[in-house]
Specification:
alpha/beta, 6-stranded parallel sheet, 6-stranded mixed sheet, 12 strands, globular
Length: 451
């Protein structure tokens, strides 16, 4: 009797364990299916983001815009070509294809890694950005030699894109001090307009002074805009455009951020820049608005209902990320696919010594707010393909980013405080790498919600 009871109880125990094992197996299978589904959905959204980035960047390449501008310009048989900025190489290449033998000489100055070989007889130089270096100054000397001694029969085709402020420079103070001032401006969160207001007064080529160096020759300036609202005297610090800012503006910026300048630099701030130039004709060829419009069109083609929020985003990067995350949470229960698009240029307040850029910090800040949201993805990139001092164009995050980082002992708030967004995103496959794109028209941020 005891043995029979023992067998019965053992059978029930085994049966119960079998049921538990089956239940556990079903739970694990369900989890695996969910993970596979999530992975597929994430992969599909990544594919969508890649298409949006690719087509948006293609839409703002300077080639056609440069050609259109040159068709409008009445140029003599012989011209000198000067191109500065992160898109200088591509712009110069387009101009050379149009003008060919009309170009008697030329100089291109662009960021390290942004050139792709010689362009006919045009000399190509690479230099430092976002902080200038000795090569910036040496290359600028070659430009000034190119345009020295010109006559009224000469013309200069001047191609300008973002990044020119650091790349094109003949400083009126020592290189060390100029680098120090630039670092202070980058660290304090000053916007690009405030930075360039000061840079103009420390330079022999900014704030309209390059145009003066070309006189009496005519300057045909073709500008690829990377500043919100395209203020022509601010793009690359306006080398060939009258300066709208004053010494009073410059001194107010110094006081606002508590910047430390030498007495010589302060004296330069008090000297006025050219307010009128009679030898310049200017054409604007691109803008962030075109970048946003291209993203909008592609999002629509991919099945999203696009909403362009702004092309003038200009707050702190982490605040922009938090705001876009709040939109994602509000729309979490939507029944349709949505794409929220923003263009502009945010700023980063340096509180640490990590590696990153404004687009990476924006994306990482958004990741904190979209945690756990299904089928939600956000990317933010610089249209030039380089975000701050990094080799990444920007960052991309989704509802799993925070969890992935947390599992590795990484805290997003701590990372942002240390300004180390690059290394955090690197650990969760969150870096967007495009390489130099050949253009530069501000940043693009897109929030995707797929249904």
């Amino acid at each position: 009797m005891f043995r029979r009871l023992q067998k019965l109880l053992l059978g029930r125990y085994l049966f119960k364990n079998d049921v538990n094992r089956v239940n556990n197996l079903l739970i694990e299978t369900e989890k695996e299916n969910l993970m596979n589904t999530t992975a597929k959905d994430t992969a599909a959204m990544r594919e969508d983001t890649n298409k949006i980035i690719e087509k948006a960047i293609a839409a703002v390449q300077p080639d056609k815009a440069v050609r259109r501008a040159l068709e409008k310009a009445e140029l003599p048989e012989k011209v000198h070509l000067v191109a500065i900025g992160k898109a200088a190489y591509q712009m110069a290449k387009s101009a050379y294809a149009c003008l060919g033998k009309q170009i008697t000489g030329g100089v291109v100055i662009t960021k390290y890694g942004h050139s792709k070989g010689d362009i006919g007889s045009i000399r190509v130089f690479e230099a430092g950005h976002p902080v200038l270096d000795e090569n910036s100054i040496l290359a600028t000397e070659q430009v000034l030699k190119e345009v020295s001694g010109l006559t009224e029969k000469d013309a200069v085709v001047f191609l300008v894109s973002g990044g020119g402020s650091a790349l094109f420079e003949k400083p009126l103070v020592s290189l060390n001090e100029l680098q120090n001032i630039n670092k202070q401006l980058l660290a304090c969160g000053a916007d690009i307009t405030e930075m360039n207001t000061l840079r103009k007064r420390l330079s022999a080529v900014k704030g309209g002074r390059f145009a003066l160096a070309c006189t009496p020759a005519k300057v045909f300036s073709i500008i690829l805009s990377d500043i919100i609202g395209a203020p022509l005297d601010m793009i690359a610090s306006g080398p060939a455009y009258p300066d709208s800012t004053t010494s009073t503006d410059a001194l107010a910026i110094i006081e606002k951020y508590g910047l430390k300048l030498s007495p010589e630099a302060i004296e330069l701030m008090m000297q006025e820049t050219p307010k009128e130039l009679n030898n310049v004709e200017t054409y604007v060829t691109g803008s962030v608005r075109e970048l946003c419009a291209a993203a909008e069109k592609t999002a629509w083609e991919l099945g999203y209902e696009p909403v362009v929020l702004t092309d003038s985003l200009c707050c702190a990067a982490k605040e922009a990320g938090s705001f876009l995350a709040s939109i994602a949470r509000y729309q979490a229960n939507t029944g349709k696919s949505l794409a929220f698009i923003a263009g502009g240029e945010t700023v980063v307040h340096l509180t640490g010594t990590g590696l990153g850029g404004r687009n990476q910090e924006l994306a990482l800040a958004a990741a904190e707010g979209i945690t756990g949201l299904k089928d939600v993805c956000l990317f933010s990139i610089g249209s030039d393909g380089t975000d701050g001092p990094t080799d990444a164009a920007g960052g991309i995050v989704d509802g799993t980013t925070k969890t992935t980082l947390k599992a590795q002992g990484i805290s997003i708030p701590a990372v942002i405080k240390y300004n180390d967004s690059y290394h955090a995103l690197e650990k969760c496959d969150g870096l967007v790498m495009t390489g130099p794109t050949g253009t530069n028209v501000n940043d693009l941020c897109v929030l995707l919600i797929k249904r």
